Amino acid sequence: MTRLYDLYVINRDGLCLLHQKFGSIEVDSDLVGGFFSAIQQFMRDVLPIGDAQSIKSLDRGDFKLLIEHQKETDIFGIVISEKEDVEVRRKLIEIIAEFDRRYKNKLINFNGEVGEFQEFKNFILSKFPSQLIIPKHIPEIIDANLIYRIINGELNSVELGGINYGITNQQRMILRHINGQRMIEEISEIIQIPSEKVIEFISLLVWHNLLRLFIQPVVHDTDIFKTKDINLFFADSLEKQIVESTFGEKGLEFLKLNKGGLTIRDLAELSGIDLNTAKKMAAYFLVSDYIEKVGAEKAPSLVDLKNTPIAIYSYALKMAKGEDMGDLLKTFFNAGMNAATDFCQKTDLIYESEGMWFGNMTDVIIEVIKFFHKFIDHTFSGKMLNIIIRDCFECHNFRFYEPLCYFTTGLINGVFNFCKSKQMVEQSILLKVEEVECKALGANACKWAISFEKS
Hints:
41% helix, Arc Repressor Mutant, subunit A, alpha+beta, five-stranded antiparallel β-sheet, Beta-Lactamase, Outer Surface Protein A, domain 3, 14 helices
């Protein structure tokens, strides 16, 4: 793909009527207009009359200026590109012709006001979507009502940015295959339409907030990224525009705060974004080359933490190797029970005095879980204790058909059994514990509902 830097629409006096930025290189649009005006004047002086307008390109070595001219309104379209490209030139011709058609009367009677031309950027972006979108992007529907009306044939056209776009059957076919899971290249393969065509249509809908895009690469809660060029998202750049259009102010805030040092989980909390959305953002920004991974928060090592209760879990994993899943989960549960017993015997939250045992069982359950998991929340109503764990190591990167965190469930049961064996709990009290949400099932966190009931 040919790299583009900038596109300009300039009048015969060298005044920049419209500037669309594609890259991160800062160029003063007025200087470009002045430079081009000087070149034009020079060519008029040395070339036969009329030949100055026939200049098609200027080569500076490291980049080229591709030039197209509209005679009636005497305006020029200029693309700064890394090389001559037939497809880029074809689109430049379409852009300058459409600009001429749409604003002909304003250009003939030009009053010096360029603000009214800004809406034309939507048309430019629809012509160069590949500068922003790649076949690995996954489109997801935002405005379901409008998209489904298009798919069902209720709408044959849609107005976007002041332009009325007719909807083709081919475009309806593209929309039917958008499910928030398929990549653009997969959609292209299924419906046998070139990915460039699919991207061109999708980019238009993304720009107008009917679709959003994300990338599939795995982003962990504990990953640490850094925005490569934060200043890019303070300036009026194309990158800023596409982020704002796709993710809104939250996306920009995410990039501006991302100076390296905060995990995705902490960035999400700081930016006021739910964790799942933050991870989608990070994946999108990573593939778009806006951010880079600089590290990850060090997770507890099951091997290195010897002489601690968690070593029991490591030992259980090794001993259970080769066993079927049912036995393995039971082993995890028993390992949790044993670890909880060990914890209860060593903690000062439970103590013996004159043959009696004392302590708050709820506090001990919370503390034993905190020993193994760093990021937990809990609520307690008197009858129901809810535990929420965001960094559960048991199901990290696992997918399963049922909640998987048997070790932590064993911890909870282990504390209860210990307290009951020390007569800190009435014998008629029964524990009811259930993992109601699990990251192995796609949830954002693992959650346990714990209640104590009389038999």
